[in-house]
Automatic annotation (TrEMBL):
It holds the Pfam family Pyridoxal_deC. The keyword DNA-binding does not apply. The lineage of its organism: Bacteria, Bacillati, Actinomycetota, Actinomycetes, Kitasatosporales. The modification N6-(pyridoxal phosphate)lysine is found at K344. Its cofactor is pyridoxal 5'-phosphate. This is Aminotransferase class V-fold PLP-dependent enzyme. Transmembrane segments: none annotated. Belongs to the group II decarboxylase family. Keywords: Aminotransferase, Decarboxylase, Lyase, Pyridoxal phosphate, Transferase. The keyword Lyase applies. One of its GO terms (biological process) is carboxylic acid metabolic process.
Length: 527
C-alpha cells in the first residue's frame, strides 16, 4: 500500500515476477472446473461481439443525430408499442437463444424512433437535452466498464474526476477550495432531498436518532420555499416527515421570484405559529418560467435568521460557467448548498447532478449510518474519497465521467457558448412574440424558458386555459414539434424550453404557425 501511494508508477507492481507468473498461467490454462458452459454462454460474453453490436448501434445513432429535420415525438398507443416490443423477444426459454443481429437492429430502431427527438429543432419542450456525442460515448464506456462510483476502490477515475470537476466548477461559485464539498446524486430531486436532510440534521441533531421532536413545547421543523419551487422540494419534505402544514410558502413577485419585502414577515409569522424553519430553498431557474430568486439578499436573510440556505439550481446553476450570465446567481457564495443538474444545461446523458456544500462537514450531516460491509472506521487516502456516506445511493452511476471528459476535451467554452446562445435566442423569440397580436407573453425570459398563450379572437377568458392545454396536446400528437405547458397564476400557458443550439427564430416562427393552424382547427371543430 505504502509503496504504491509513494510511487505513482504503479505499473512496476505488474512487473514483479510472481505477479506476471500468475498472469501467464491464468491466460494459458482454460478453466476446467465447475459445470460445463454452453458455447452460447461464452458467445454472449465474447468481447468481439462488443465491436459488432456497437457498430450496428453507432451507424444507426449517427443517422439519427445527422437527421436535423423538424420533428417532435411519434406518440404511440402503449398497447401497440407493447405488442411491437413483445414481437422482438425470443420465444426460446430453455436454452440461451443464439444472437440475432436482426433482433438487435429492430430493438435499436424502435428505441430511437419512439423517443422525443431531442436533437431536432422541433424539440422545444423539456429540460433534458440532446447530448454532446462524446458525452454519449463516454456513457457507453461507463456502462461497459461498470464502475459504480460511491466507493473509490470501485471507481477510481470517476472519484478523482468528481474532485476535479468540483474544483473546476467551484471557481464560478467562489468558495475556499479547501473547505467545500461536492457529491454526485442521481438527479436534482435526490440532491434536494439530500441537502434538506443535511440542513434538518444540523438544526435538529437528535432527529436521526429520536425522530421528529414532540410538538409540545418545542418548535416544529419547517421548510421555507418560494411559492413556485419544484415539486421535488415538497416531496422531499413529505419523505422527511415534514407535513404540508410545515412548509412555509414565500410569496413571489411579478417576475416569479421570491419577493424580498414579504419573505421576512412570512418567516416571522411562521415563527409565531411555532414553526422552526431549518432550511430556506431558493430556485436558480424555476422549472416553470426559469426565474432566479434573489440569492444575494436571501443569503443575508438566512444568515441573520440562522437558517440553512439551499439553492435549487437544477436548471440554472449551469449559467455560472458563463461570464455573461453568472450575475443571475449573484451571492451564490453565501449559500449553504447548491443542487446543479448537468443533464440539463450541460448536455450530458441523464442523470448527472452535482450537490455542493459550502462546508465540507455539512456534507456528512445528511445520513448517519453504520455498515461494516462498506464503510471504514479509519479512512485512508483511498477511502477518504468514498462518497457512500454522503449520498443516498449505494450503487451509483459514475455520472461525472461524461461531464469531466467533455470539460477535459473541449473546455468550459463549449458550455458557455451554447448556454449563451440558448438564452439570447430565448430573448429574441420573446421579442418576436411581443410583435404578434394574437399571442400574449406570460413573463420576460431570464434563461432559456419562455411561456406564452395563444389568444386569437374568439377565445374568451374562461376558455383560455383549456385552449392552451388542447393546443399543447394536439401539437404533441401531430409530432412536428414538442412543447410543454405549465399553469401560471392558475391559467395554462404554452411552455418552450430552448435546449438546442440548432434552433433559430425561423423554427420558432414555424412553431407559431403550427400553433395557429392547430388553434384554428380546434376553434372550427368547437373542441
Ligand atoms: C428539473 C428540476 C428539478 C428536478 O431535477 P431532476 O434531475 O429531474 O430530478 C428540481 N428543481 C428544478 C428547479 C428543476 O428544474
Amino acid at each position: 500500500m505504502e509503496s504504491r501511494s509513494n510511487n505513482p508508477t504503479f505499473e512496476q507492481r505488474d512487473g514483479s515476477d510472481s505477479f506476471s507468473a500468475i498472469q501467464r498461467s491464468r491466460s494459458s490454462a482454460p478453466i476446467t472446473t465447475g459445470a460445463p458452459q454452453s458455447g452460447l454462454l461464452l458467445d454472449a460474453f465474447d468481447a468481439k461481439l462488443l465491436r459488432d453490436n456497437s457498430e450496428t448501434a453507432v451507424s444507426r445513432l449517427e443517422d439519427h443525430l445527422a437527421d436535423l429535420s423538424v420533428r417532435g415525438l411519434d406518440l404511440i398507443d402503449p398497447a401497440a408499442l407493447s405488442q411491437a416490443a413483445r414481437a422482438l423477444m425470443t420465444t426460446e426459454h430453455e436454452s440461451i437463444a443464439p444472437f440475432d443481429e436482426k433482433r438487435l437492429n429492430a430493438i435499436i430502431d424502435l428505441y430511437i424512433r419512439t423517443g422525443i427527438q431531442v436533437h431536432s429543432p422541433g424539440y422545444m419542450g423539456r429540460q433534458f437535452s440532446g447530448v454532446v456525442p462524446l458525452g454519449g460515448v463516454i456513457d457507453f464506456v461507463s456502462a461497459v466498464v461498470n464502475q459504480p462510483s460511491s466507493f473509490y476502490e470501485a471507481a477510481q477515475l470517476p472519484n478523482v474526476a468528481e474532485r476535479i470537476m468540483a474544483d473546476e466548477l467551484n471557481r464560478f461559485i467562489g468558495w475556499d477550495p479547501g473547505s467545500f464539498a461536492m457529491v454526485t446524486t442521481s438527479g436534482g430531486s435526490l440532491a434536494n432531498l439530500t441537502a434538506l436532510l443535511a440542513a434538518r440534521n444540523k438544526m435538529f441533531p437528535d432527529f436521526w436518532s429520536d425522530g421528529s421532536p414532540a410538538p409540545a413545547g418545542r418548535a416544529r421543523p419547517a421548510i421555507a420555499v418560494g411559492a413556485d419551487a419544484h415539486y421535488s422540494v415538497s416531496r422531499a419534505a413529505g419523505i422527511m416527515g415534514i407535513g404540508e402544514g410545515q412548509i412555509v410558502r414565500l410569496p413571489i413577485n411579478r417576475d416569479h421570484q421570491i419577493c424580498m419585502d414579504r419573505a421576512r414577515p412570512t418567516l416571522d409569522e411562521a415563527e409565531r405559529r411555532g414553526l422552526k424553519v431549518f432550511c430556506l430553498v431558493a430556485s436558480a431557474g424555476t422549472t416553470s418560467v426559469g426565474a432566479f430568486d434573489p440569492i444575494d439578499e436571501l443569503g443575508d436573510l438566512a444568515r441573520e435568521k440562522n437558517i440553512w440556505l439551499h439553492v435549487d439550481g437544477a436548471h440554472g446553476a449551469s449559467l455560472l460557467v458563463s461570464d455573461k450570465l453568472r450575475r443571475k446567481l449573484e451571492g451564490i457564495e453565501k449559500v449553504d448548498s447548491l443542487a446543479w443538474d448537468a443533464h440539463k444545461l450541460m448536455f450530458v446523458p441523464a442523470p448527472c447532478t452535482l450537490l455542493f456544500y459550502r462546508n465540507k462537514k455539512d456534507s456528512l450531516a445528511a445520513f448517519r449510518q453504520e455498515a461494516s460491509y462498506v464503510f471504514t472506521e479509519d479512512p485512508d487516502i483511498y477511502t477518504e474519497l468514498d462518497s457512500g456516506d454522503k449520498n443516498f445511493e449505494c450503487t451509483k452511476r459514475p455520472m461525472i465521467m461524461a461531464l469531466w471528459a467533455l470539460w477535459a476535451v473541449y473546455g468550459r467554452a463549449l458550455f458557455a457558448e451554447k448556454i449563451e446562445y440558448l438564452c439570447e435566442l430565448t430573448e429574441e423569440i420573446h421579442r418576436v412574440l411581443v410583435e404578434e397580436t394574437d399571442f400574449e407573453t406570460a413573463h420576460r425570459p431570464e434563461a432559456n424558458i419562455l411561456c406564452f398563450r395563444y389568444r386569437p379572437n374568439g377565445v374568451g377568458d374562461k376558455d383560455v386555459h383549456r385552449f392552451q392545454l388542447a393546443i399543447t396536446d394536439r401539437i404533441k400528437r401531430q409530432g412536428n414539434f414538442f412543447i410543454s405547458k405549465v399553469n401560471i397564476d392558475g391559467t395554462a400557458a404554452l411552455r418552450v424550453v430552448v435546449m438546442n443550439h440548432r434552433i433559430t427564430t425561423e423554427h420558432f416562427r414555424m412553431l407559431l404557425d403550427e400553433i395557429r393552424r392547430v388553434g384554428r382547427d380546434l376553434l372550427r371543430s368547437g373542441e
